Amino acid sequence: MAKNYKLAQEADKDKVYGALKEFTRNPKLWRSSSVGREYCNLTPDGREVIADMMQDILRTVDILHHS
Question: Fewer Cβ within 10 Å of end Cβ, the chain: N or C?
Answer without folding.
Answer: N
